[in-house]
Amino acid sequence: MTDADSAAPRTDALGEALPYLRRYARALTGRQASGDRYAVAALEALLEDDSVLDRFPPQVGLFNVFHRLWSSAGTPVAETPEGLEGRAQRHLARLTPNSREALLLHAVEGFGFDQLAQIMDVSPDEARHLVEIARREMGEATSGKVLIVEDEAIIAMDLESVVADLGHKVTGVARTRARAVELATTEAPDLMLCDIQLADESSGIDAANEILDQLGERPVIFITAFPERLLTGERPEPAFLIAKPYTEEQVRSAVSQAMFFSSTETLRA
Q1: Residue 175: CB partners within 8 Å, gap ≥ 6?
Q2: How far is residue 88's CA from residue 74's CA, in Å, rounded to a whole number?
Q3: The domain 142-261: what is its CATH number?
Q4: Alpha helices (runs of H) in 55-175, residue ranges in sequence order
Q5: CATH of the domain spanning 3-139
Q6: pLDDT single digits (tens) 164-200
Q7: pLDDT tens digits for 198-228?
Q8: C-beta neighbour count of 49 within 10 angstroms
Q9: Contact 113, 126 (CB under 8 A)
């Protein structure tokens, strides 16, 4: 087997992991542009020195390189200290270091505590402890009003239960774009949970964008069975994206993250 043949599976694995690294980076920064810059920097650093792949699988190695770059940068999201983002940066600064990263890696990206330990260069027990701290600190930090845009009744009920358990108020559940806009203009939500494909073949993306145009910026979490279709890097993408089938922990983490950060870009068609 040639070197090229042995490198091919590793390259393919890195390519498959990159969209999810970009998702994670955007969730950390709240912005697609800044998140993508860090993801690209991590990939470039790995291509220059791939020795980490001798110790870890490609996906874990890529996230490990990213985490080391991210940690060495200090507080990289503090690029625009005024307005909504500035308030978010100050809020983030009060969190226990590395706890938010640990929660995202575990709950949203699906890494186990052993993998999390490898990515963050800590022990598995430390990784578990960081996740527990993040859940507590973020859960205590914010509460607000949430609009659920979902056409499947069972999923909508499940999301409503998770949101209520977190201490948030559900302003309504919409199955179509028109109903979502109606509910949002009746009682403005602080956050929206939006499925992509709605009951009447309308788009949850279009519903969210219309609401944002009317009410102004607020966090949006998109839920889709096909996340790879939105993680291409070819157009604006959501900072918060959950794949179906999801776990309750993923929803809890994403809602807490989005509400806590309180400022994010949404997908623009």
Answers
A1: 150, 151, 156, 198, 199, 200
A2: 16
A3: 3.40.50.2300
A4: 58-72, 83-92, 99-103, 113-120, 124-141, 153-165
A5: 1.20.140.160
A6: 988 899 999 999 999 999 999 999 999 999 998 898 8
A7: 988 888 889 999 999 999 888 889 988 877 6
A8: 9
A9: no
